[in-house]
Amino acid sequence: MADDGMLLNFELDDAPATSQVKFKGGRWRDRVRAQNSVKKWQKPATDDANRPAKRQRTEDGTVDRHFKIQKTATVDHVPSHAMKTGAISSSIFTKNPTAVTAFDEQPEAEAEPAIPSNAPLSDEASTFHALGLSRRVAHHLATKLEMKAPTAIQKNTIPQLIKEDSDAFLQAETGSGKTLAYLLPIVQRILGLSMNEDGTSKPVKVHRNSGLFAIILAPTRELCKQISVVLEKVLRCAPWLVCTTMMGGESKHAEKARIRKGANILIATPGRLTDHLDNTKVLDVGMVRWLVLDEGDRMMEMGFEDDIRMIVGKIRKDKLERENKEGLVLDGILPARRVTVLCSATMKMNVQKLGEISLEDAIHITASKADMEKDAETGADESKFSAPAQLQQTCLIVPAKLRLVTLIALLKSTFSKRGAIKKVIIFISCADSVDFHFELLKSPMPLETEPDAKPNPHIAATVAPASYITSPATPTVMVHKLHGSLAQPVRTSTLHAFTNSKEPAVLITTDISSRGLDVPAVDVVIEYDPAFAVSDHVHRIGRTARAGRSGKAVLFLLPGCEEGYRSVLGTPTPTSQLYESILQKGLSSAVNLPAPYENAENENEKQTWTSRAEALQLHLEQRLLARPDGDEGDAPKKGGKGKDRNAKPVPSNPLLDAARQAFRSHIRAYATHVREERVYFDKEQLHLGHMAKSFCLRETPGGIGGGVAKRSIKAKDSGKIQSGGGGNKTQSGGKGSWDAEDGVGAAVDGDAARRMKEKMRALMNASSEFNLG
């Protein structure tokens, strides 16, 4: 054949030819991930590197654990077991957004501790007796309650409320003693009906049937109970005076019985008091001299404006009685008019609106007399509230994928010191997320109690020993949960257990615990989810650093727009910190895994904090994939090609269902920040896949934008509440099911009916707290 001059030119690459790798077995998702991993590492080498890519080494010569090759990507066959257990998993240290905050270098020497701004005064002339309290009351405070000196707000408030009959607005930082600031003048003036100034008794002694002289309103049941406990301690110096409570969740018949017996001071929530004013004729408010509105801004936010208007109107409508049924003249000792006292740590527009409803020619009382004089000249302003000076605030910048392991590392380092009985409060945005994190952190092994100890059934599901966060120095840590969907006896018992815990304790809670609660010795407050408004943030961090004690507050923020939230938190501005230092400190030693995982694999002593963080995240994800029967992997769905449609579906892991529901509720709650702060919490910039990692989920659940999640209860044979979305489709509307959103139900027997009623009761209890899902 003649040469026609055609020239064929084949250019051969220097890189070695790679063969097509085909994976078999396992799940199709894992095969796709493995195939993509192979393609990634089969890319041609660059001019600077003519060899296959390998793990990079750091400056100290150690292998970078963030940059690794999946072992299953180099074989032709992936074992089915490796696929199910998740041997192929994305690293939590890759593809994270970069923080924009310029982190300041840590100072070489620690600064001197700040002088506490809410501690009792050290001036020798500042005593309770000098403020106008009788020797009987002052001696009782000093000997029985160990309170020898007042705080600044008490020093400015007590003389004013004892000598004057004008309305007052009390504004002071949290933990400064506002409760005693208004309780002590009320007790002193009522005690004056029975005692002379020299301490001798009068011929007529006031008792519980002498009349109702004061009403104190509080937004939550927990705050009502706390005020009642403080008042009962004060009244031990005058046992003939009686106080009582009225709040939701309690028996109205029992409350009516207590009113019939008589009470001098009433502590109530607005809704329950409105109910009794309308329906309980024995409740007589004709002799009420004081109306105290504690946490007024919170009551307005919870929608109690109409109830407060009705209460104020009802009390002012009745004629003020000058003497009681026994002929005891009340004027001259008690105020000649009805006095209203409004208390709040912040001054917002809704507080000013509440003042217009309830106050008449009120004086503004603050902890500083300079501020009082300024307010008298220029009027009260809306200056931002400042946290206690001794409170150490930190903003922790943490990517979404690292939130959970960072939280565990922070708790683990907090309880690493031997002999320190510390208490930590973790604030989370919604009740579903509280339930999930409690179930995740608690130990499956029950707490060993003394044989003679009687268990409390109310805390059986809300208090448990913790796992992951313990250490050889602190082998036992108790974890508690508290939110508004729990029954009132459960909430009361759980809060009591946390307050009186003799072991290091953690309370996982919603904003229901952010207002007014005085839990002794709270060392750290962790805002795992930022508050919905800056005012809520103020009350959250106020659970620590109370009455002059030191405290620490840690706020978790995501890199990006959330970092700007630091600028609106008031003064002093919290310091910024990157998550790496927390992980290095908390994961410097091995994590104690709960049973039955503690003996699964011996940890290598040379593991770094990064490898421990990845191993911990992988372990948590595998816990959610484990089936109740002990196998691992997602539960197969009912029906399908090649499957027996009559076979019973394999039940999914309850912890996986809880994680999916918690994720949905968290995303919905994220979109409910106040309008002024949504520029920092933009839901459009939230990476749902990364956020799912913080709930130990490998895939983003569905059903986020459908409002309140639909839940269904199957017939008696299952008796379980299943959440829609993700891998489990909602079965509402079917035979023997009940849909909480549509309100269409069918007959359900046994435990399922009881759980259905509890869920409905929780959904209807909208005044307790913001509770999504």
UniProtKB/TrEMBL annotation:
Annotated keywords: ATP-binding, Helicase, Hydrolase, Nucleotide-binding, Nucleus, Ribosome biogenesis, RNA-binding, rRNA processing
Domain Helicase C-terminal: start-end pairs: 403-601
Chain ranges of the Helicase ATP-binding domain: 159-365
Catalytic activity: ATP + H2O = ADP + phosphate + H(+)
Gene3D superfamilies: P-loop containing nucleotide triphosphate hydrolases
Keyword Protein transport: no
Entry remark concerning the domains of this protein: The Q motif is unique to and characteristic of the DEAD box family of RNA helicases and controls ATP binding and hydrolysis.
Protein name, UniProt field: ATP-dependent RNA helicase
Species whose genome carries this gene: Echria macrotheca
Top-level taxonomy: Eukaryota, Fungi, Dikarya, Ascomycota, Pezizomycotina
